[in-house]
Amino acid sequence: MRNERKKLLAKLAYLYYIEEKSQAEIAAETGIYRTTVSRMLAEAKKKGIVKIEINNFDTRLFQLEKYVKEKYRLKGIDIVANVPDESTAELEERLGQSAANLLRALLDDHMNVGFSWGKKSQPVGRTFKSTTFERYSFCSTSWWSQSHPCPISCQYSDL
């Protein structure tokens, strides 16, 4: 690769990743079409001029999430990793936070959600307290609800 081309790719990468300018701003500044800026940023990554690293986190977790999501055609997934020396209560709290965040991301307005509720689901409920429930309808899917049906019409979502 010519040094001029390498320098231009490095400059565009610097403007985008270090100075955090948008591709449109870089295009205006350099006189290069925005679509060309996008292609050149991709080229800079491919040629090894730009190397993106995520520090202090095992990114294999994200690779596993992607694999499971694609394999089972899921709308969303959040795998919660074990943390050394973490108590069961702390893990349950993190699982509840994760489940609540995933539900928020997947729920649409006025969706009816069937949910099996128990002691292990309490962290989800605590995290969800700040959510306005007018937008969603929740009802139990437990054995109790079979003999005492939910007063609203519930549909089991394909979450």
Describe this structure in words.
The chain is mainly alpha-helical and 159 residues long. It has helices at residues 3-18, 23-30, 34-46, 60-71, 88-106, 122-128, 143-147, and strands at residues 111-115, 136-140. It has a two-stranded parallel sheet. β1 (111-115), α6 (122-128) and β2 (136-140) form a beta-alpha-beta unit. α1 (3-18) crosses α3 and α5 (88-106) crosses α6.
SSE inventory with pairings:
Blueprint: H1 3-18, H2 23-30, H3 34-46, H4 60-71, H5 88-106, E1 111-115, H6 122-128, E2 136-140, H7 143-147
Parallel strand pairs: 1-2
Which features would summarize this protein structure in a list?
mainly alpha, two-stranded parallel ribbon, 7 helices, disordered C terminus
Largest sheet: 2 strands, parallel
Low-confidence stretches: 147-159
- For this entry, what is the oligomeric state of its chains? single chain
Total strands: the figure is 2
Query: What integer is the average pLDDT?
Result: 80
| Span between termini | 48 Å
Name the beta content range: 5-15%
In helices, the fraction of residues equals 40-55%
Q: Radius of gyration from the CA trace?
A: 23 Å
Counted by DSSP, the helix tally is 7
Strand line-up in the sheet with most strands:
1-2
H and E string:
HHHHHEHEH
Class by alpha and beta content? mainly alpha
Question: What does the overall shape look like?
Answer: elongated
